Amino acid sequence: MQFSLEQLEAFVAAADEGSFSAAGRHLGKAQSAVSTAVANLEIDLGVSLFDRGGKLPLLTLEGETLLREARSILLRCAELRDRAWACADGEGGVVRLAVDEVVPHELMLEVLVEFGRRYPGVELEILYGVLGDVLGMVQSGRADLGMLVPVGPPPREVPHRLAGALGFSPVVGSSHPLATLTEVSAADLAAHRQLVITSRGGDKAPEEMVFGSRIWKVEGSYMIRDLLLQGVGWGMVADHLIEDDLRAGRLVVLPVVGVFSGHADPVYVLRASGSALGAAGRWLAEALERAVAAKE
């Protein structure tokens, strides 16, 4: 069995166009070339793909089944071709992006959609982490790029660029005792449970931001928000995660005095040291930097 891609293309075109002559026009070939290619494919496969008894060829049951397989093979071949062209053009065959889970999804979506349109042959892998997890993935080579919201600036040996910042506010559920206070002091905060972001590597919020005498360390801002909604404690949460809850009155920004109120954490775009990013990776890094800057 030695069928060719040209035979599969003729088979699919004949099925789609409804006749061998129409398939020939679609493929820019003579009708006889398409008819011969399909006939040879039938010989190679050992089945009849079309019933030629009528005015126009009709797919047999075997033809309908194998048509799906033929389409799949042609699709995979097109993907292989696109991937090869991407590598040959210096785009890079795979780009791996590590993202801090607090980075707004809507900030990334438009960039990723455009990336897929510009570089259809490039494979993209998106990994999520918290705090130092993202830095670790970039340093280890697990990721080519990173979007980092750190507790401190990234090390100098890791190429990085400050792209912007995300705002954070101290919030609490509307049913929590702290929600009734017109002023909240450090002593008030210390008397209640505080939910603090942490990472698998043990990174957490700076000590100067930790006031609670009873701490819950949670690996995930979304879980912290959900726990706050249940009145479990208070915590610092990214502003974009709580906009709807604040408007609806489900969460309340604490009127903290004497220590801190809201603050902004930097967002860095990292590049793996020594990584030769192709055109696709470079475009993605620059587009993400622009997207973060535009959100400020």
Report on the architecture of this protein.
The chain is of the alpha/beta class and 296 residues long. The protein is built from 10 helices and 11 strands. The protein has 3 domains: 84 residues, Arc Repressor Mutant, subunit A; 93 residues, D-Maltodextrin-Binding Protein, domain 2 (3-Layer(aba) Sandwich); 101 residues, D-Maltodextrin-Binding Protein, domain 2 (3-Layer(aba) Sandwich). It is 43% helix and 21% strand. Helix 1 packs across helix 3. The protein is elongated, with a radius of gyration of 29 Å. The N and C termini lie far apart (61 Å). The relative contact order is 0.14.
Strand content: 15-25%
Give the CATH architecture of the largest domain. 3-Layer(aba) Sandwich
The number of distinct helices, counting runs of at least 4 residues, comes to 10
Query: What is the succession of H and E elements?
Result: HHHEEHEHEHEEHEEHEHEEH
> How would you classify the helix and strand content by structural class?
alpha/beta
Q: What number of structural domains do the residues give?
A: 3
Given as residue ranges, the uncertain stretches (5+ residues, pLDDT < 50) are: none
CATH topology title of the largest domain: D-Maltodextrin-Binding Protein, domain 2
Rg computed from alpha carbons, rounded to a whole number of angstroms: 29 Å
* Strands, count: 11
Instruction: Tell me the name of the CATH class of the largest domain.
Output: Alpha Beta
Shape: elongated
Mean pLDDT: 85
The major pleated sheet works out as: 9 strands, mixed
